[in-house]
Amino acid sequence: MTDVNEQSFAAGTNGDSASMHVSRSKPTRAAKPLWRFKPALPPVNVVRKFKTEIIPKIVMALRSPPKPVEITDGDSAKAVQFAAVVIGSSDDAPFDFVDNLLMQGMTVEAVFLDLLTPTARHLGAMWEADTTDFANVTLGVSRMQRILRKLGESFLTEQDRETGGESALLTVIPGEQHSFGLSIVAEFFRRSGWNLCTGPFLSHRELTSLLQNQWFDIVGFSVCSDRRLNELRKDIEDIRRDSRNRHVGIMLGGPMLISHPELVASLGADMMSIDAATAPQQAWKLITEKTAHANAQGDK
Q1: N or C: which terminus of the chain carries fewer CB neighbours within 10 A?
Q2: DSSP-assigned beta bridge partners for residue 250
Q3: Fold for domain 162-296?
Q4: Hey, what CATH topology would domain 77-156 get?
Q5: In this predicted model, what pLDDT tens digit does every residue of 147-191 receive, in sequence order?
Q6: SS3 (DSSP) at 6
Q7: Who's near 237: CB < 8 A, 6+ residues apart?
Q8: Residue 14 Cα distances to 10, 11, 79, 218, 298, angstroms
């Protein structure tokens, strides 16, 4: 589904060997042992411990039912049903499911926003609740990525170019995996006529190097968790300082922003967008505002 207005920046393609250098400084010896051996239990006590403590715990764990998945308001019954289909045994069933909805009159945009997006969210909830495993989630997301690519071309036929070919870089925080939600957002940017570059990036250096050498009007980050917020803050600071476009706009999106909108200010971004359909228009408005401000300041 790659075309002339999109490039994918696969992690590690630049062979950034310098970023992989590992310090080999001599480890410091601990002043005291961090753990100590305990005297071995007599055989009789070992058997008693297994019978009275370990085995009962295993039995209780096996008897405990999995935690039920909480279905949020945004997860429609159809999305819950589709989640079961995409992790099922049939490779064709997910495509047949979507084709049937399209034949009933569902638009491609609705498939993206009202089916694929809540289904991905529901799969994440199932994983967190231990009602499915990582392999199933990976399988389901992989199948939805294929559906996204298949429908992408027809989505472009509905194209309403509202921009003048502005450029955007959309990615996750360097070191994280690609976000399915970010793929949805990218489809809306492509349909609106943006020139796109998408991550993920292997390292902070890989990201900043690209921004130093290529002009981007917008950099968008999908924030899926709070694990790398300090790294993201540093990324944004360095982008502000070193980007070829000194007035680049920085947008944030993703699940974390829904519950923590204050992250926009604390991380040093310009704005947030939690709606894939309107994100391109919001980005264009941000560029307009930044251009006007730069002109007022006499910047070139």
Answers
A1: C
A2: 219
A3: Rossmann fold (3.40.50)
A4: 1.10.1240
A5: 999 998 888 776 665 656 799 999 999 888 768 889 999 999 998
A6: strand
A7: 268
A8: 9, 8, 39, 22, 37
Q: What angle do CA 107, 162, 263 make, to 5 degrees?
A: 85
pTM across the whole model:
0.71
Q: Which two three-digit tokens encode residue 83?
A: 């989640």
Strand order in the sheet with 218-222: 6-8, 195-198, 167-172, 218-222, 249-253, 271-272
Domain boundaries, the chain: 77-156, 162-296
Cis peptide before 200 (omega within 30 of 0): yes
What Rg, from alpha-carbon coordinates, does the chain have?
A: 24
Can you give the pLDDT at residue 81?
A: 94
Domains 77-156 and 162-296 fall in the same CATH topology: no
Q: Phi and psi (nearest 5°) for 219?
A: -120, 125
